[in-house]
Design brief:
Elements lengths: L1 E5 L11 H6 L2 H7 L3 E7 L2 H7 L4 E10 L2 E12 L2 E7 L1 H5 L10 H18 L6 E5 L6 H7 L9 E6 L7 E2 L4 H4 L8 E2 L2 E3 H8 L2 E4 L2 H6 L3 H4 L3 H6 L4 E3 L26 H15 L9 E8 L12 H6 L4 E8 L1 H13 L4 E5 L3 H10 L2 E4 L9 H7 L3 E5 L2 H6 L13 E3 L4 H16 L1 H13 L4 H16 L1
Parallel strand pairs: 1-2, 1-6, 2-5, 6-7, 7-11, 11-12, 13-14, 13-16, 14-15, 16-17, 17-18
Antiparallel strand pairs: 3-4, 4-5, 8-10, 9-10
Helix pairs in contact: 2-20, 12-15
Length: 471
């Protein structure tokens, strides 16, 4: 099949979050399965800075934006067998440091959507499936419905919601800049809403885990879109994201102190454990290390640690190592823990790839107490590195981690249901008990390392969906 992916970022060209990891992996897995794949992205400044010399111009045209015509160039390169097309416009993308967050994001991604449709016309609709991602592409299926170009009528659209909290909401004063006919499809809660437009207009809706798809039909998780998604329940599914084991594998990770695999994971984990303690200047000791690599935000659930974590540190029951940045109050709290318990707590504010990998390799447990988590990547990495996830059973965390059962000894992590500090405390207690039972502890680590969450598994499910749309 001929499949075109549209998105606002993709590794290695540009990245702010998990969307880039998806578009940097899933298209290539499908290409390896024999499909003809194209990716279309904005030519961001970061892309220009890194790849300018490798790009060639394929086509140029203009796109209407209000009462003017904006230049658009389509520049291409072949990356691991996949054609990547960059939409080039210096004003909207070429000189800006940020991918998002500017005052005119609605205009910028309205322009990008128009440019994508112009490209489809240029190639005379020579694709079968158009796979769209997040609000930045939500206008595109509506634009296709409005176009009178018969060459595009056969194209089927898939729209993936990576995180429903980000919706692309804009004042209705943006409408003249979009150059599309008005419809209530465009509007939600007295604003223009690009995500809502995609939900209503696409042939099929997906999201990044089965449980997140179920959660999005409830008001607590749906951010106002729950009723629309209930209406689309027959054309709405969740498919779990995968992980790139070429990038995340302890047996060849150049960032960690000692490479290891299933055959020598006990030796490997211990050597990396000692390296991690040394990296964060924490004293050694026979108690579990809990690692965190995350954005420090309310959604990630770290507020639940308040009032419970200090008891564990005071009683010498665990060590805590944190890498991340975010809310000022959470950063302040973790800094307080570091100052008070400097022998047991290590903290680095910001992001550091080597430190992150060393935490995955050297910690005993990895904490993700999220209020909601569409898919999650860190729990999949920690499994591969033999670090046991402690997760709240929500979204992709629920789908990927089987809670440990102390009676059957089955499971790959520690799980808790309710978003409460009481439930998190019970999970931490369970982790300490598991660590003390070294036989069971080793079994759970090994089981996690053997789990398969490769992109090939996800790609097979998307292939089935594409085939269903093509029938």
């Amino acid at each position: 099949m001929k499949i075109m992916f549209i998105g606002s970022e993709a590794t290695p060209f540009s990245k702010t979050g998990g969307l880039a990891d998806v578009l940097g992996s899933l298209p290539y897995a499908l290409h390896q399965m024999g499909h003809d794949i194209t990716i279309v992205l904005p030519k961001h400044k970061v892309t220009k800075d890194k790849f300018e010399e490798k790009l060639t111009v394929e086509h140029t045209t203009t796109v209407p934006v209000k009462d003017k015509k904006e230049f658009v160039g389509y520049e291409i390169l072949l990356h691991h067998g996949v054609k990547v097309v960059f939409v080039d416009n210096e004003y909207y993308f070429g000189y800006r440091e940020n991918l998002y967050g500017d005052y005119d994001d609605g205009e910028r991604y309205g322009y990008f959507s128009q440019a994508v449709v112009r490209y489809l016309k240029y190639i005379k609709g020579d694709i079968d499936i158009l796979h769209l991602n997040d609000w930045q592409t939500g206008l595109i299926p509506y634009l296709l419905q409005c176009t009178k170009n018969s060459a595009l009528n056969h194209i089927k659209t898939v729209f993936t919601i990576h995180n429903i909290a980000y919706q692309g909401r804009f004042d209705k004063a943006l409408m003249p800049y979009l150059n599309v006919p008005y419809s209530d499809i465009l509007e939600f809660d007295d604003t223009l809403n690009f995500l809502k437009t995609g939900i209503v207009s696409a042939d099929w809706i997906t999201t990044v885990s089965k449980s997140y798809a179920e959660e999005l039909t409830y008001a607590y998780f749906g951010y106002g879109m729950e009723d629309l998604l209930k209406e689309r329940q027959n054309t709405f599914i969740g498919i779990m994201n995968g992980i790139n084991y070429d990038e995340f594998s302890p047996n060849k990770d150049s960032y960690i102190a000692f490479n290891y695999g299933i055959h020598n994971y006990l030796k490997g984990k211990e050597k990396n454990r000692q390296a991690l303690l040394k990296m964060f200047h924490i004293e050694a000791g026979g108690i579990p290390i809990i690692g965190i690599v995350s954005r420090l935000a309310e959604q990630k659930g770290f507020n639940l640690l308040r009032d419970i974590i200090e008891d564990y540190l005071e009683k010498d029951r665990l060590k805590l190592i944190v890498l991340g940045s975010g809310d000022d109050d959470l950063e302040g709290y973790f800094d307080h823990l570091k100052q008070r318990f400097h022998d047991h707590v290590g903290v680095y504010f910001g992001y550091h790839e080597k430190m992150a990998r060393q935490i995955y390799a050297g910690a005993d447990f990895f904490l993700m107490p999220s209020r909601y988590e569409p898919c999650g990547l860190s729990q999949l990495i920690s499994l591969k590195y033999g670090t046991i996830p402690i997760i709240r059973q929500t979204g992709g965390l629920k789908d990927s981690i089987e809670p440990y059962n102390r009676y059957t000894h089955k499971g790959s992590g520690i799980g808790f249901l309710n978003f409460s500090k009481e439930d998190l405390k019970r999970a931490l207690d369970e982790a300490v008990k598991l660590y003390q039972n070294q036989t069971a502890f080793k079994q759970v680590k090994k089981r996690g390392m053997q789990a398969d969450f490769s992109w090939q598994q996800s790609a097979l499910q998307y292939e089935k969906l594409y085939q269903k749309l093509g029938d």
